[in-house]
Amino acid sequence: MAYFVNVRMVVAASCIVAGVTGGSIARAQPYPSKPVTLVVPYSAGGPTDVVARTLGAAMSKSLGQTVIVENRTGAGGTIAAAYTARAKPDGYTFLIHHNGMATAPALYRKLNYKPLEDFEYVSQVIDVPMTLVGRKDLPAKDFKELMAYAKANGDKVNFAHAGLGAVSHLCSVLLRQAMGVDMTTVPFPGTGPAMNAVLGGQVDLLCDQTTSTTPYVKAGSVRLYGVTTNTRLKSLPNTPTLAEQGLSSFQIVVWHGIYAPKGTPKDAVEKFGAALKGAFKDPVVAQRLADLGAIVPSDDKLTPASLRSWLEQETQRYSPVIKAAGQFAD
Ligand code: ASP
After folding, report:
1. Which residue in 124, 162, 210, 265 could disulfide with 293, CB within 3.0 to 4.6 Å?
2. Are 37 and 94 contacting, i.e. CB atoms less than 8 angstroms apart?
3. CA 279, CA 296: separation in Å to the nearest integer?
4. Could you read off the pLDDT of 28-66 as tens digits, one per residue?
C-alpha cells in the first residue's frame, strides 16, 4: 500500500515539477520552436515560389526549423498580403512579395490592408529581370518578326499573366503599349501555370522573371524574344534587350521584400532576417540565384528600414502613373 502511495506521490510530484518546468521551458524556448510559414502570393512553380523555396530551404538549416512555403493565390497577390496582415503576429508567418506590394494601393480601390502600415518590414530580397517568351511553335523567330506577327494578328495573339497587380501583367500592359498592338490578355493564378500554358501551346506570350524562365530558355522549350533590362544579362549573354531591339528605355526589374504581420516580435523579425542574409552567403544558393539571373542586393539593403523606405518610394512612383492610366483592378 505504502508502495502505491509512494508511486502516486512520486507521479504527482513529478507532474507538478514537469508542469512547472515544462511551462518555463516553453516560455524560455528560443525562437523558432516550430515550423515557420512563408506565404507566397502566386502558384507553385512560378518565380516567386522558386525564390521562396530556394531561400526557405537554406534558411531552414540555420533556423533549425522548417520554413514551409504556402501558396495563397488570387487577386494579383492581394489575397496573400491581406492574409499575412491579419495573421497572428507571433513570428511564425511571413510573406514574400514583389513590386505588387507597391502597385496594389493604386490598382485596388477596396484594398483591405495598408502596405505601408500593417506590416513589420524584414528585408529586401533579390532583384530579378524579366524575359519575353513565347510558345515554341510561334512563327515569329525573333522580336522583329514578333512585332510584325503581332501587328498582323492583333487580338488573336494571347498574352498570359498572373492577375492584375502581378508584374507579368504590368509587363504585358507596357509591352502592348510600346508595341502598339492590343493583344488579348489571359490571367492565371501565377506564372507557374501561365508557363505551363505556354509550354502546352495554349497561349502565345508571357513576360516573366528569369528565376522561372531561364531553365525553359536553356532547354529550348520556349522562344525568347528579349530581356527587360537596359543591359544584357550575364546569365543569358546572347539575348538582346528589348530596348536594343527598338523599345527604347523599356525596363522592368522585379524587386522582392519579406514582411510579417504588424506586432511580430523584434527578435523573430531579426532572426528571420539574419537567416535570409545567411542564405545569400550559402555558395549553393548564391550560384543558383546567379544562374537564374537574380541579383542579391548589398547588405545595407537587407534591413527592415531599407525595405520600408524602398516600398514607400515605389508606392509614390507607381501611384500617379496607375491613377493617370485610370487602371483599376476592382
Ligand atoms: N511572376 C509572377 C508575376 O507576374 C508571379 C509568380 O507566379 O511568381 O507577378
Report:
1. 210
2. yes
3. 11
4. 689 999 999 999 999 999 999 999 999 999 999 999 999
CATH C-level class of 36-128+254-325: alpha beta
- Judge if the beta carbon of residue 254 lies within 6 A of ligand 1: no
212 Cα to the center of ligand 1, angstroms: 9
Rg for the chain, CA atoms, rounded: 24
Does the beta carbon of 192 sit less than 6 angstroms from any atom of ligand 1?
yes
pTM to 2 decimals?
A: 0.88
Cα separation of 23 and 192, whole Å?
45
Which sequence spans correspond to the domains of the chain? 36-128+254-325, 129-245
Whether 211 is in the pocket of ligand 1, judged by its Cβ within 6 Å, is no
How does pLDDT run across 275-287, given as a tens digit for each residue? 999 999 999 999 9
Cβ distance 96 to 39 under 8 Å? yes
Q: Is 48 in the pocket of ligand 1 (CB under 6 A)?
A: yes
Tens-place pLDDT, residues 187-220: 999 999 999 999 999 999 999 999 999 999 999 9
We find that the CATH architecture of domain 129-245 is: 3-Layer(aba) Sandwich (3.40)
The grid cell for 271 is 532572426
Residues in the chain: 330
